[in-house]
Amino acid sequence: MQVLYFAWVRERIGVPRESVESSAKTVAELVSELRGREARYDLAFSDMTAIRVALDQELSDLGASLVGVREVAFFPPMTGG
Amino acid sequence: MSVSVQAADFDVGAEIKALANGRTDIGAVVTFTGLVRDMAGGEKIADMELEHYPGMTEKALANIEAEANERWHLQATRIVHRFGKLTPGAQIVLVATASPHRGDAFEAAEFIMDFLKSRAPFWKKEGTPDGGRWVDARDADEDALNRWS
Questions:
Q1: Where would a tag sit more exposed on chain A, N or C end, judged by fewer CB atoms within 10 A?
Q2: Do B137 and A80 lie within an 8 Å CB cutoff?
Q3: ipTM of the prediction
Q4: Confidence bin at B21 (pLDDT 50/70/90)
């Protein structure tokens, strides 16, 4: 699946998007898998209350299933307007 | 109903004219324009970089606009939101609503702005003398949303 990062999440991870091979069934599982990979992910996801997630461009949550999902995005709370 | 997410500036007068589009049944047009301020948190702001999520942004704005059209009697709506590097005084966002009477247009414009603040995938980074600083979401913006539920 494609994983996208925005704002300071992007800066901490160092790339705006990447292709990730994962068997994670939920967003939470994907996050813990990424955190185990490298320190930059661990740092970016150290406080999950500051992270929002979108699945295929719809706002979702950590407990959501990744079945059939092609695009996962992680970002801080939005500041539009 | 119409949404644009663009780097280019917009012309409020031209947008109002396009909204009415020769119609004579519109009684009220309300517009809100958001601008970049030169100060934030007591610090001078040199510029503001707006990042967004292409694709999701357009969808989120269209959903907010559709919701406003369900709640109020609106004859036309328009949202323009810019991205990229903007300097103080620059226009960031335009919300325009048209209705037969002012009440619906006023309320709908405020509703759209309240939702756009924390439900449209934009992130702001302010350029200060000490370097770049991401703007935190404000609790007040979340409170503003709750009054519509």
A1: N
A2: no
A3: 0.95
A4: confident
